[in-house]
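Most newcomers find our protein records easier to grasp once they have seen one. Nothing more is needed to start thinking about how sequence determines fold. Here is such a record, shown just as it appears in the course material:
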Amino acid sequence: MIKPGFLRKGDTVCLVAPGRKLDRASIDTAAGILQEHGLSVRLGENLFNSAHSYLSGSDAERLADLQHALD
């Protein structure tokens, strides 16, 4: 198993919602905390997609966001 190192100031994290969509206030709070720790924050393309009921995009869109974050 590959174990990545700890995050360091200047590293980039990507916020995605593969399970369900989240409200903007929750995302803003999370992003703010991460930025306070010196991290750069990117948001998934479909994070606020509301076209699919309680999900943040179709299966393919959520998978694409997750894959992009992992890449």
Q: What stands out?
A: The mean pLDDT is 93.
